[in-house]
Amino acid sequence: MENVDARVLRCARGWLASGYRVMLVTVVKTWGSSPRPIGSMMALREDGPCIGSVSGGCVEDDLVHRYTSAYGASPLPQSTPELVRYGITADEAHRFGLPCGGTLELLLEFAPAPAGMDELVQRLEAGQLVQRTVDCQSGRVSLADASAPAAVQFDGARLSVTLGPQYRMLLIGAGALAEYVAVMALFNHFEVTVCDPRIEHRDTWSVAGAQLSTEMPDDAVRRMKPDARSCILALSHDPKLDDLALLEALHSPAFYVGAIGSRRNADSRKQRFIEHFDETEQSLQRLHSPVGLPIGSKTPAEIAVSAMAEVLAVKNSILQPRR
């Protein structure tokens, strides 16, 4: 499952290539509670179809009513970008279904250039990290290579959004827990690979959309080439497999490295890594073990919820990568 940004941009490119007028909408500011984060995007076609989301749904409906011919409005103008706000008053917040006190500001791009949109999508499909900058006065768009993910930058005159390939997850071990984690990760738009050289576990794998690797775990980590959008979870319960992956992953830029097991197992692993593999207290601070948030989980499904919640919390900078 590809990420939402890629779907929005790819769809917008297709509409532009077919001769339709398209409006690209981006959340540039929020105040108070907001249903969608800064940088969220949607594309709106002149006759009504839309893809993506900037709110819980009511703002999207209002944009369709105001800017498309679906409800008799004038066709999308070929003009410079426009900034609009929703939810400034309590009445508006209620009308548009925004949380109490929630306000969002949107940048409306009425005429994104087909050539620029095509180049952006091609670069994203090639796995590149791209910074897209919009001049809010002229509508001119520039694309530049980015070396790392970055927060959205908006100063009222320019909007810069860093777009890139999907977040990736590597799971070691093809057991029941990995199946639940893989399903949740796919649902959250991660690209998922499951590594298990054990044929007896691998042959029962049944999660569509997740790639299956038969390599040894350390080879799988090296082949993955983890970056700041990658995470590795060791879930096999077999130290011969989990340790190989963890020792490789701990020295990568992956934003999350975790391992399943009890606290006793986690302590034993820590001592083993220090005594036999030259790891240190400092290098092991990156390791989340036992994996997951403490929610009292017991079953594979509950443990998967705990693990996925912690991965997302670290990804979204709610939890620090080290603990």
TrEMBL record:
The XdhC Rossmann domain, residue ranges: 169-311
User: Start and end of every XdhC- CoxI domain?
Assistant: 15-68
Q: Which domain of life is it from?
A: Bacteria
According to UniProt, the name of this protein is XdhC family protein
Organism of origin: Comamonas sediminis
